[in-house]
Every structure is written in structure tokens, then in C-alpha cells.
Amino acid sequence: MDNNFTISWNGSRIFVDLREDKEKSPVYVLHTPKKRREIVSHVDEMGVEHWLERGKGETKDSMQIGALIEMALYQHSSHWGV
Q1: Nearest 5 degrees, angle CA 13-CA 65-CA 39?
Q2: What is the side-by-side strand order in the sheet with 49-53?
Q3: Residues 22, 4: Cα–Cα separation, whole Å
Q4: Structural domain of residue 49, as residue ranges?
Q5: What's the pLDDT tens digit per position in 64-78?
Q6: pTM value?
Q7: Count of structural domains within the chain
Q8: How far apart are CA 9 and CA 24, in angstroms?
């Protein structure tokens, strides 16, 4: 997948950049109409994935956005047979 893609969220098309943080973990940078947001995926000690917004932790928005990011990544991999 390219390092950027779009998702539909709250009635808008949101541009998403994929970057890496210092630990080489993926960071999804969303360019929403109101502000720039950073969403990261974290797997806890029980193996459960959580979507966190930098500076806020796990929120309703971060969980919704994370699910949309997962769907976009899955659709891309299914399309290309990866």
C-alpha cells in the first residue's frame, strides 16, 4: 500500500498518511477538516488490539477510525491478493 490513502469518516473523506515513530511502529496521521490527528495501534498483553489517539488514549473516535483504517488496509490487500 502507498504511504497514504483516504477513509470516509463523519461524512467526510479523510486523507491518511502512514508514518513510523521512533520505535518503527506505524502511526496513522489523519488530516481532518478541524485538525491533524495521530492514531496508533497497540496490542496489549492479552493480545487485544487497541486504537489510541496520541495525547488522548483510547476514545470512541480512535476506535471508529482504527476500524476504518483496518478496513482500508484489508481492502487493499484483498484487491492485490497480498
Answers
A1: 110
A2: 4-9, 12-20, 26-31, 36-43, 49-53
A3: 19
A4: 4-80
A5: 999 999 999 888 776
A6: 0.82
A7: 1
A8: 26
